[in-house]
């Protein structure tokens, strides 16, 4: 369990933060009560939202008014109140994404506790939660990736909300990282007419155009539609790296009656320029280099040959039918295809004694990946005496097939001067290997949510069968190179208990597990077992009944076992005796304190340790994970008077130090960044100006070794004009 003594500094900081957030909430309650004495202008009924003047109930995967969500499906696969979930869940609403003008998933999660990203890599999202890699989901279905670079990327412009579940979630989703789940919820067809066009310009010659149309197609509202599109063209802070995107997502809902709904979701995305990989050596970024500092604008790759492009499309549906008030069924299905064409040259050695020359690596990847996901659910709501039950039973299936044509080479005979590079001397790498991979997962799960008076007990169990078939052939001769055929199975479970007081305070405790297959064999030829994760989490959630706010405090002890580490008896082989532990504290608050002022705040402390290892890093902190993170964002909008609907937003993000090498001798300093926004609504127009990293601080986001360090995003400024009718 979590060591309280070891975390006293974090607990003190968390307690103060929680007290401030709770104080703001209580103050808002008093102010709101005073306002309501003289006027009925503010409606504090909760959790309803206002859409086109009509009050409608908030749902777990629908739109949210403002910054404060109250329900989520990510932590239970049922429409459950956040305060009733026995794990930590953060919801990033559409209003928050718009206010901060987020352009990537990385930017969207930067105000979420214990959640970090690579910060400045456009190729794909690389998120970590509680010190472990996070899994990405779209509409509750996993976005699988290949073993290399074909990794689906979703633009936030097409999302209604993002739900971040922290901690193991295999009981719901099957094989998964112990860190948690990021579930993106797409925009759905709307009952009310929606027409919006957005034009944006920014630094680095950024230009983009977006549109979002929706509404009923017939008078009875049985057919609803939505079409969202985006075009973007931009340079980046790094020379020779560009960003281009064309994307569209049509959706159609059919509701033949009040109990049945079928929503078709499709998308197409073309990224002619999808970013590039730009690792930099530690000497010249984090460490001093006698030849000078490497600039964040420098690209240490071959601009003439390097490229990354993506074609991505998907089609699927969400189906739900309610037989009666006690029984309903859901079926969610999606097929997604991803093609990438990638050539990359990058520094791949320590600097030579002159501190200016190094050796390069180049890889070529032409990847084609198709994935199919199906999730069947049956939900029963009933009572047995005083106990109210929500029972969920499910069967899901995932299948992925990828064809990868790849090659790579290390150029040990061609030292490159990184301060004055000449890449023309490097040969072009050809495709030398053809790899075909098939992944399947079949899982069945059962969950019970039993409520007795103020108590809520959550129990869940799941059994999975996973199969990996990987074949690699020499692309030149056609002869087999290697073959892996591995089958795994695992049982995972979760238990949680919540108690809700009348004043909105709800303490909770939970235990959850996860598993994640890993391919390969040990020296004896035995297939590696899946890694196993387990987590204890306790906390308090606070959601007052008469003001829109939600505050959480969580303590967790998360461990991953069966981790691969060097075999001490056999060189170049691995054994599964490794273990990593993450202990931490998180506090988070979302609040609409007055009609004018909304606030987000979070703090997290992560003490992550390699408990068992043969790699010489036992007792050390894993690389790239910041020890402390804190953030606050506020938005103030004037209502009434000559400045009616003029608003201002500002945020501060602190990311503590992290370690950049397994031996912890390389320390990446902390950094503090400031974001700002101003917006003005006039008639049907919304004009906004957003700045991220306002003071243009140069910082290293993280290092994974002395070879690979990465600059964070410098100042970005973007002006947008949105017309809605």
Automatic annotation (TrEMBL):
InterPro entries named among the record's database cross-references: Beta-barrel_TonB, Beta-barrel_TonB_sf, Plug_dom, Plug_dom_sf, TonB-dep_rcpt-like, TonB_sidphr_rcpt
GO BP term, example: siderophore transport
Residues covered by the TonB-dependent receptor-like beta-barrel domain: 254-694
Keyword Transmembrane: yes
Signal sequence annotation: 1-30
Record flagged with keyword Ion transport: yes
A molecular-function term among this protein's GO annotations: signaling receptor activity
Protein's name in the database: TonB-dependent siderophore receptor
């Amino acid at each position: 369990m979590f060591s309280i003594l070891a975390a006293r500094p974090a607990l003190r900081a968390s307690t103060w933060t929680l007290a401030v957030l709770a104080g703001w909430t209580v103050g808002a309650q008093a102010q709101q009560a005073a306002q309501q004495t003289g006027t009925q202008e503010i409606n504090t009924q909760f959790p309803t939202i206002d859409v086109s003047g009509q009050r409608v109930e908030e749902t777990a995967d629908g739109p949210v008014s403002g910054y404060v969500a109250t329900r989520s499906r990510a932590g239970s696969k049922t429409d459950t109140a956040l305060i009733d979930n026995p794990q930590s869940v953060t919801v990033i609403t559409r209003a928050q994404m718009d206010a901060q003008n987020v352009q990537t998933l990385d930017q969207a999660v930067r105000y979420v506790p214990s959640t970090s990203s690579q910060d400045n890599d456009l190729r794909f999202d690389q998120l970590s939660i509680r010190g472990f890699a996070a899994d990405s989901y779209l509409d509750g279905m996993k976005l699988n990736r290949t073993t290399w670079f074909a990794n689906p990327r979703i633009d936030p412009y097409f999302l209604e909300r993002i739900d971040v579940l922290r901690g193991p979630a295999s009981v719901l989703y099957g094989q998964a990282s112990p860190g948690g789940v990021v579930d993106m919820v797409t925009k759905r067809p709307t009952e009310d007419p929606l027409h919006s066009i957005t034009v944006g310009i920014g630094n680095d010659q950024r230009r983009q155009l977006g549109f979002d149309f929706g509404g009923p197609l017939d008078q009875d509202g049985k057919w609803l539609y939505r079409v969202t599109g985006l075009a973007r063209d931009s340079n980046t802070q790094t020379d020779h790296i560009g960003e281009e995107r064309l994307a569209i997502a049509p959706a159609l809902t059919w509701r033949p009656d009040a109990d049945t709904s079928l929503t078709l979701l499709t998308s197409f995305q073309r990224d002619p320029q999808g970013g590039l990989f730009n690792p930099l050596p530690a000497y010249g970024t984090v460490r001093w280099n006698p030849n000078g500092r490497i600039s964040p604008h420098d690209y240490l790759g071959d601009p003439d040959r390097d490229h990354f492009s993506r074609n991505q499309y998907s089609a699927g549906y969400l189906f739900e039918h309610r037989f009666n008030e006690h029984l309903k069924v859901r079926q969610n299905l999606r097929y997604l295809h991803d093609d990438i064409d990638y050539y990359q040259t990058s520094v791949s050695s320590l600097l030579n004694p002159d501190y200016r020359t190094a050796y390069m690596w180049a890889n070529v990847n032409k990847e084609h990946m198709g994935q199919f996901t199906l999730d069947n659910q049956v939900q029963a709501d009933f009572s047995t005496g005083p106990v109210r039950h929500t029972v969920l039973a499910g069967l899901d299936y995932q299948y992925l097939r990828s064809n990868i044509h790849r090659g790579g080479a290390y150029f040990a005979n061609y030292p490159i001067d990184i301060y004055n590079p000449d890449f023309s001397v490097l040969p072009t790498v050809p495709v030398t290997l053809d790899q075909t991979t098939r992944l399947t997962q079949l899982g069945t799960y059962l969950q019970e949510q039993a409520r007795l008076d103020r108590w809520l007990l959550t129990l869940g169990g799941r059994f999975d069968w996973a199969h990996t078939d990987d074949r690699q052939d020499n692309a030149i001769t056609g002869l087999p190179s290697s073959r892996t055929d591995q089958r795994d199975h695992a049982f995972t479970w979760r238990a949680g208990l919540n108690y809700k007081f009348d004043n909105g305070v709800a303490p909770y405790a939970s235990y959850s597990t996860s598993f994640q297959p890993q391919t390969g064999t040990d020296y004896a030829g035995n297939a590696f077992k899946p890694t196993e994760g387990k987590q204890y989490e306790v906390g308090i959630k606070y959601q007052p009944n008469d003001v829109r706010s939600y505050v959480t405090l969580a303590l967790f002890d998360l461990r991953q076992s069966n981790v691969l580490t060097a075999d001490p008896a056999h060189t170049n082989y691995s054994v599964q005796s490794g273990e990593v532990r993450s202990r931490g504290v998180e506090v988070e608050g979302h609040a609409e304190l007055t009609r004018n002022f909304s606030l987000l705040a979070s703090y997290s402390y992560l003490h992550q340790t390699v408990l068992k290892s043969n790699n010489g890093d036992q007792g050390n902190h894993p690389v790239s994970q910041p020890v402390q993170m804190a953030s606050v964002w506020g938005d103030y909008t004037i209502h009434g008077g000559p400045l009616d609907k003029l608003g201002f937003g500002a945020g501060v993000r602190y990311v503590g130090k992290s370690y950049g090498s397994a031996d912890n001798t390389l320390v990446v300093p902390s950094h503090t960044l400031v974001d700002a926004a101003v917006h003005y609504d006039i008639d049907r127009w919304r004009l906004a100006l957003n700045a991220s990293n306002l003071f243009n601080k140069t910082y290293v986001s993280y290092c994974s070794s002395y070879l690979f360090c990465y600059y964070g995003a410098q100042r970005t400024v973007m002006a947008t004009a949105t017309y809605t009718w």
